[in-house]
Each structure stands twice: as C-alpha cells, then as structure tokens.
C-alpha cells in the first residue's frame, strides 16, 4: 500500500490531481461552515429581536383562552369569580347557599325534582342566541353539569341576541364566554367546554359520557343544516333525549311559538329542510322541536339574495366561515332567539324533573288532518263500491302524519289545480288498476301509496272523482300541461320519501 502511495505522489500529474481534490474539499468545507455560521447568526439575531414578555407588553392582552379580546383586562371581580368557581367545583361551597339561590325552583319542583335537575348532565350544541339563553336558564335553575359545544367566537353582531356576552368577550370562543360569565352567577357548575364544530364523524366523542355519566338531555341550537341533521339523527338512533330549536330568524310574533314533534312543525324553512332530510334517514317522528308558525308577509323581514357584486368577486362558497355554511346574513330580532332558548330550557327542566306538561298543538292542525283523512276514506269507499268491491270497513294505509306531510311539505297547503288553500282534501290522481289488497286473507284494505295522492279543493276533487276515477277521462285530458307537469314533479319528489315509510 505504501509503495502505491509513493508511486502516485512521485508523479507530477498525480500531485496536481491530489492537490485539486484536497483544495476542493477545503473550499467546500469552508463554504458550508460559512453558511452554517451565517444561519446561526441570523437565528440569534431574530431571537434577540424578540422583546422580553413583561406586564407592559401587548402580548399580555391575549385572553386566558388564546383569543383576541384581551384588550379588556379581567377586572378584580372577574378574578375573584374565577377563583371562587375553582374552589366551588372542588366542593368548597356551602350547599345551603346553593339551595337558597335556587329556592324558588325548589318550591316549584319539590326536593325530588330539584335533585334530579341538580344531578343532570346536559349537552348544549350551539352557543349563539338560542343556546346561550338555554344554558343560562339551566345554570340558574340548578343544573350542575353542562357540556358546551360550539366552534364560533363572539362578534359585535352577536351582542343583539346573546344571553351573557359583553364587549369584553368579542373575539373569545362562545363556549368560554358563557362559562366565564355564568361562573359569576352559579360558581358550582361544572362546565365542559368544547370549542369545536359538531359533525357526524365526531358525534360519538362529543356526546360521550362525562365522568361515566351518560347525557340526560341534548339541546340542538345549531343553525347549520348538516350539523343539525347529524346531531338529531345520532340522538334518535342512540336513544338520547334531545330537543331541537328551529329557525328564529325572520320571526317576530311570540304568540306563534310552539313546542311539538318535528313531524308536525310547519311554516319554517329550517324545520322543513331538517324534517325532509331526517325522513330520508328513516326518522319520521320522535324529535321534539321549538318552532314558529309565523308566515312571511308584506313588509316582514326575509333572507335577501346575495348582492351581485359578491358573486362577481369569485366563488360564493369562499365567503363562508366554513364549507357549506350560509354566507348571507339572516335578519334576526334579538328577542326571538331568547324566547326559543327559554322554551328549550323550560322543556328540558320539565322532562328531567317529571313535571306534568301538555303542550297546546299548533293551530289544532290535528283536527284538520283528521278531516282530510276522513274525506280520503270516503273517496276510497265510494271508489270501491263503484267497482263492485266490499266497501264497508275498508281500511286505507295512510295515517294522520302522512296527511300532514303531504299537505304541508309536498303541496304547501295549496291545491295543485288552483292554488287555493281552503276546503282542501287528498284524492287519487289516476284511476287505479289494482285497488283491493288481497295479499293478506281477511284483511280488507285498499292499495294506496302516498305518491298517488294530490291535494285539491273539495269542489275540484268532486269533479276529478266523477270524470277521472269513475269516468273515462285521463288527468292529461282534463287538465292543462302546467298542472300535469306540476303533479308529476311532486310525485317524483315524493318517491324518495316513500322508500322510508
């Protein structure tokens, strides 16, 4: 080996090559070393440029939640309230004081009812106008375990309807805003705050037990249709008690607010959309809701179209805070979300404590649906008699709930022929080929599907029965193309629901 090195170094050509290689290595190392030194110098310079954090530095204005509203330094009262709440949650709070604070509820609900309320675990999803008022009422009433779920922050525009938010809370997550303010009222309440967006994928985690206790009730105060449907469907499938707030936007009449099953809620676009999507998931009823039957009218607020200049800026979807969220401002009278929220809280309190309650049905619509169902029964019996079938005791596979759905959701309470909204009834559109169900011996019923029915006035139905169902005319011969096309569109739309009956 040494002889080979000697021969190589003895060659002048080889010496030049060796020198070049060594020089390259030295220069490369020097360049890399210089670059590393320069990087370290820049990093150190950047670090030196960062000022020390002290009491006078503006960074201390960030709130304890990491939000942007710390321009308002917590007051001494806030600090005392937070300290008191921390001790109260550990049990360092006299129970007699709690009972004195909820004394009026105690007299009303009795000791047994109040104890149920105090031990309940309630989840509120959506902490805006409706959710904040519901939460505040529950905390004031004695509920001691509350989980709050909302991804949003308090804005200036929130202050016209939020139950507890102040200017100092603008920029903070709504869940923490509620916690901080309600700790000053009921320091013993255990808040589990989730600054998160509720969705189907996270439902099992967000609605999970708290320290081993299953939720006694879930409040839906969401205004996004996807999240709302996911929440209600999850609760219904998993037998978790839930109540949902429908739309308070564009409403102003407190006398039109009702509590009832979602299958009977009407005159509310959010309720309609929620109901139809739940039906496609197989949920027809069993979800209590707070809703308004107030109808739009001249001079009333409405959701306005997005201005053309906003469309010109590009994709409208990019204007939303999240994908698929509405980008238009919904007109809201601040008092209405409060009333919806109080109705929700009131229902939860009555249900948990077992206090008797029997709500007034909206507009006594059940009676109207029963009348329409009776008229349909009469049409079917007369058709059976005309075709030589036994008509006495004939059953029809249509329920009061089906009638309500067809009248309100499919035909919007108006005749498909004239658009009139009085003296309405349901009747077959086409003359049936097979009429009596013979599949079950001893069962006397008609073969009738919901997508075979149309809504007309009684006078229109009488003519339709005579000329189409008992006569020789087809609907296409009796009505103009516009009416026929409208009926076909409605029936096609109804086929989606029919699969889930």
Structural commentary:
Belongs to the HesA/MoeB/ThiF family. It holds the Pfam family ThiF. The protein contains 17 helices and nine strands. Helix 6 (129-141) crosses helix 12 (335-353), helix 9 crosses helix 10 and helix 13 (365-386) packs across helix 14. The longest helix has 38 residues, at 12-49. Strands 3-2-1-4-5-7-6 form a seven-stranded mixed sheet, sandwiched between helices. A two-stranded antiparallel ribbon has the order 8-9. Helix content is 45%, strand content 9%. The radius of gyration is 34 Å and the shape is extended. It is α/β, with parallel strands linked by helices and 501 residues long. It starts with a helix and ends with a helix. The chain has helices at 2-10, 12-49, 76-89, 95-101, 103-118, 129-141, 174-183, 203-206, 225-237, 269-280, 308-312, 335-353, 365-386, 400-410, 458-469, 475-478, 481-498; strands at 121-125, 145-149, 190-194, 217-220, 242-245, 257-261, 288-292, 424-428, 453-457. The chain folds into two domains: 63-300 and 332-360, Rossmann fold, CATH 3.40.50; 363-498, no CATH class. Helix 6 links the parallel strand 1 (121-125) and strand 2 (145-149).
